[in-house]
Amino acid sequence: MRIAIAAHTARRTGGAEQYLATLVPALIGSGHDVACWFETEGTHQPLILDHADAVESWRASDDMAAALAALRAWRPDVIFTHGIADIALERALLGVAPAVLFAHSYYGTCISGTKTVQVPGTRCCTRTFGPACLLHYYPRRCGGWSPLTMVRRYDVQRGRRELLGAYTRIVVASRHMQAEYARHGFASKTSVVGLPIQARMPVVDQREPDAQERRLLYLGRLEVSKGVDVALETAARAAAALSCPVHLQISGDGTLHQSLAGRSVELMEMYPLLRVTFTGWLDEPDVAWALDRSDLLLVPSRWPEPFGMVGVEAALRGVPSVAFGVGGIPEWLTDGVTGRLVPEGPSSTARFGDALVETLRDPAALARMRAEARRAAGRFQTAAHLAALEPILAAAAGVPAEAVPA
Length: 406
Fold this sequence. Notes:
The strands form 3 sheets. This protein has a 7-stranded parallel β-sheet, with helices on both faces. Strands 12-11-10-13-14-15 form a 6-stranded parallel β-sheet, with helices on both faces. Strands 6-7 form a two-stranded antiparallel ribbon. The protein has helices at about 15-30, 65-75, 85-95, 130-135, 145-165, 175-185, 230-240, 255-270, 285-290, 310-315, 350-360, 365-375, 380-395, and strands at about 1-10, 35-40, 55-60, 80, 100, 115, 125, 170, 190, 215-220, 245-250, 275-280, 295-300, 320-325, 340. By secondary structure, the chain is of the alpha/beta class. It folds into 2 domains: about 1-195 and about 380-405, Glycogen Phosphorylase B (Rossmann fold, 3-Layer(aba) Sandwich); about 215-375, 3-Layer(aba) Sandwich (Rossmann fold), CATH 3.40.50.2000. The protein is built from 13 helices and 15 strands.
C-alpha cells in the first residue's frame, strides 16, 4: 500500500509523535510505501524521521498549496491522520484519498479537549459533547474566562465532530477511548489497536539493592491536569512516613514550574529527608537513565488519560507506577500486580500518598511488581500493532487483505 502519514508537527513533541517515530519505519519494514505530510516543521525537539531523506515528506508551513499538490501527485491509497490542528487543512486532506484517524486524544468530543471539569474540584467529565457544553463551561470551569476562547474552542470541536463522519475508520489505543467514541455515535467505525511501545535504549538497572534512598520519578507536563502537585505533596508524605531519604525527580515543564519550585523548597525545609530536583524536559537517553535509577513512576493525572504511554515505557524498564485509575490507565496497570491504582475523587491525594508509602514499605512486593510490570508491558509489540492496524488501513484503501505484505 501507499500510506500517507499526516500529522501536525515533524518533531517529537508528544506521545503521538513518539508513536509515529516507531510506526513509520515499521510500515516501511513491512513492505509499504510511506510518505509524511506535516502541518509545520516545529522547533527544538528531535525530528520524527531519523533519516528524513529516506521518506518523502512535505510541510504545509512551507507552501500549503504545493504540499497538497505534491500529496495528490504521490497518489496515496490511504491517509492516516494524527492530530491535524487546522480544520481547513484536514478537510483538504480528506479530499485526497480515503482516510483513517488515530484519535490520540479527545478529538471532537470535548470543548476544551481535556475532558475534565474544575468545579467542584478537578475531576473527569463523561458528558457527551454538544451545545450543553457551552452552558457548563463557566459553572464547571471547563476552561478559562474568555467568552471568545469558549466559542472558538466549541467551533473547533464541532468542526472536528463533523469531520469524524468523513473518516472511514477511527483508531484508538484503549477501550476507554472506544467507549468515548461509541457514546458520540461512532461505535461501528472505531477500533482499538494496542500501541507499539519499545525500550529504545538498553535497559541498565542502576538501582542499588541496599540503598536507603527511595527514588521517585515524574515525567510530563507541569500542569494541574497532570497532577504534578500531587506527586510533590505525596513524596513529602513518604519522606515523613518512611523515615528514610526520598528523592523526587520532576522532569518536564509547564505553567506550574515556578510555584512547584517554591513549594518544593518549603517542603524540603519541613522534611529534611526529602530531596526534589527539577530537570526540565529530557532526551531519550536521559529518560532511560532516570527510569533505570527509579523505584517508582508517579502518574497522578487528574484528566482521563487516553492511554498513558509513559507508564508502559517505564514498565518495560522494570519501573512500576502509582497512578490514578482514570481513562485508559487501568488497561495497562493492575493494582497490586504491576503497580498501584488509586481511585480518583474526594481525598484522592491522601489515598495516592497512602498507596505510595505502602508500596515503598514492602521491598519484596515492589520487586514482584517490577518483574510483573516488565512482563505485562511486553505485550505492546510492534508486530502485534501492525497485525491489527494493517487490515484497517487496507480496508479503508480498498486493498484486498491478501495484498497486504505479510
